[in-house]
Amino acid sequence: MSYSADKGKYQKVYDFLYKKLVPPSGQAKNALGEALRLVSRVYYRRENDGDSYGDCIEDGLVQDFAKKQYPFDGEYEPLGRELDHLLSTGNYDEAVSLVLFNIMLSLSSTTHIYNPASNRLVEIDTPAGKKALEALDINTVFINYCGKNKEWLPEQLRKDGVKITKLLSPETRKELSCDTIEELHQVTKGAYGSKKTRKIRLPHDNSILSKKFRKIESQHKKSVKEAERKMKQRQKQYEQEKKRKQIHRGKHLTELKKFYETLKDMTTSVRVDTIKKMKASKMEMNEVVKMALFVLDEYKEKKPTTKAQKEHRSHVISTLVSQLNTVGKEVFAELNKPETILYSFYTNPNEDTRKRLDETIVKILGSEEAVDELWRRCCRR
Asked: What is the pLDDT of residues 279-304, one digit of tens each?
């Protein structure tokens, strides 16, 4: 029996519940409906594209069901682990049936069970109810606690009584003073083909099926509205943050323009404290420009005594200022382009300008090693 051939174990249930719980787009109407949507997606990919469950996880089509993520969190965490095992071992039809089984139980109640033959709720204590339980592989188990507080039991057993898990006649139950509980158990396969049972717990909601679906629909609409509200809130926060960034970006651009305008208009008579502020500035600047400001600061503070020393100092200062003026003009022009506010701030001079300034610094300091040492002092982070 395969759902891919429209002959799955609960095919009629699948066709009915999928339409009820899974909309054409977006998440399903409740957690178990979402589980059905995700398992169906994995099944579809295998049948149509040959993708495995692992491929679907890797491609981001579904999450790893074994992880505590919606809808396999909270009470449905064990379901997620079981589905993960079934899909990982290639038991796709069993995975679909398991989800459908859980949905049918969620729609049932302590008095009515979901009938997979009719997609209706039927009373458990009726012939139709018994057939529905049989179709769901559910058995009625009688738990008898007999002999509570009776002297004919050994003292250590009197408090709870003796547990007998079989159907006893009314006469026997009366004779043994039994409290009898009826439980529903599902027979499942254990390791190495063995059989085991697990207790089935049904909801106490005894409303009719149509009312249950209306409730699911109502809760779904509320969750959609809540999701839309949160999305609008996130969008508003995003716009506010974007506005803050634009304001900050505008202020930063203004400061950058002032910095490079100062560099553009600098003269050889520039004050030492102005140079010190510029070289200590955290404005974006090319490392060669920063090194040039360091060298300019050092030569501004020199106190030459001979004519040759004075001429050399004057030549170095005028050369550096002239080339820094060129850097300032180029970057200032770049920062004043209309598109600058939208994209990253470009603060590098033209390559020829940068190379010429670098060669000037090497010439002033006398060697590449001296320039490397200067870089370590002023630029290494």
From this structure: 899 899 999 999 999 999 999 999 99
Q: How far apart are CA 82 and CA 86, in angstroms?
A: 6
Residues 198 and 285 in one domain: no
How many C-beta atoms surround the C-beta of residue 60 within 10 A? Answer: 7
% of the chain at pLDDT higher than 70: 97
> Model's pTM, two decimal places?
0.63
User: What residues contact residue 57 under an 8 Å CB cut-off, 6+ apart?
Assistant: 63, 64
The domain of 294 spans 243-378
- Give me the number of domains the chain comprises: 3
Measured distance CA(100)–CA(18) in Å, rounded: 9
Same domain, 252 and 366: yes
**Shared domain check, 277 and 256:** yes
R_g of the chain, CA atoms, integer Å = 40
Domain boundary among 58, 87, 107: 107
Domain membership flag for residue 220: no
Residue 305 forms part of a structural domain: yes
Rounded CA gap, 147 and 158, in Å? Answer: 7
Least confident of 219-223, 263-267, 335-339: 335-339
pLDDT, position 192: 55
Domain contains 90: yes
DSSP string, 63-111: --TTSS-TTSSGGGHHHHHHHHHHHHTT-HHHHHHHHHHHHHHHH--SS
Q: In this structure, what are the phi and psi dihedrals at residue 147, rounded to the nearest 5 degrees?
A: 80, 20
Quick one: pLDDT band at residue 189, thresholds 50, 70, 90?
A: low
- Strand, coil or helix: what is 161? coil
The answer to whether residue 223 sits within a structural domain is no
Cα-based distances in Å from 329 to 24, 259, 324, 343, 345? 59, 11, 9, 20, 15
Cα separation of 357 and 354, whole Å? 5
